[in-house]
Amino acid sequence: MSNPWNNRRPSSRPPRATPAAPAATREGDGVPVRGGDELRLYGVNAVQAMFAKRPQSLRKLYLAEDMIPRLQPMLKWCVANRVGYRVVGDGDLNKLAATTHHEGVVADVLKQEPLPLATWLASLQDGPVLALWLDGVGNPHNFGAILRSAAHFGVGAILLPAESTLALSGSAARVAEGGAESVPLVRLPALPQAVAQLRDAGFGLAATLVEGGDDLFTTALPSRMVYVMGAEGEGMDRGFAQSCDLRLSIPGSGAVESLNVASATAVFLASWKSRQQG
Question: Residue 144's closest CA among 152, 5, 256, 96?
Fold first, then answer.
């Protein structure tokens, strides 16, 4: 029986595609099952950003025929490093990604585990640094939008509470449009230790509130700062908010109740960035 993975040198005239064998799915949700150390990415920018940053993490690649010219460097790398790739139909890509929003490419890659906080802090150079502490954010599309904004504004890290189950998913990576590879995820220790370590490293913590906080646009912001972003619905923990160094809100017209967490994050990041440049 011939090898189902096509490892021949890619060319402008691809070999005849054989039907893909889509990954098994968990009953009822259509989400592909892989080993616990792998993640299924999809979307051109998400897959190309991964390949640019960590090509050694690529394990399998599926692509539509019309994507061959655009992904030639990746395919040549697959041939040279004996990584399997397959040219498949759109229907198979839909099944593999469990969505139609794959843009013609799906990849199985090794997951990157979050860094310990102490490791990340030890890697920092002197000078301004901004980080985001996600206190309850869970929606993968919001997470992806936050990662995209964080990459755009040069955020140093996304900080995840010790108990948080939030992790990078294929949908979050696609929404991030490559930003997931630019911003490291950092796992925090228990709350008191996390706050103490951050303050010892010169960071001020700013709680972000829908209302009742100081005006973001008129409040002085420290050059080393952590914005604490709350959950999509209920916001951040009020007790934690009171223990932060700053409590900030985005003033608005009142025409809508508030911005969602992803939109609000972009505003907070832009405000800090403008102070560092001004």
Answer: 152
**Cβ atoms 138, 144 nearer than 8 A:** no
**DSSP states along 88-152:** --HHHHHHHHTSSTTTTEEEEEE--PPEEHHHHHHHPPSS-EEEEEEES---HHHHHHHHHHHHH
* Helix extents (H) in the chain: 44-53, 72-80, 90-97, 117-123, 140-152, 170-176, 191-200, 238-243, 261-277
Asked if residue 62 lies in contact with residue 192, where contact means CB atoms within 8 angstroms, the answer is no
Residue 60 CA to residue 92 CA, distance in Å, equals 14
Distance, CA of 227 to CA of 247 (rounded, Å): 10
pLDDT tens by residue, 189-221:
999 999 999 999 999 999 999 889 999 999 999
- DSSP classification of residue 12: S
Residue 150: CB atoms within 10 Å: 24
pTM of the complete model = 0.83
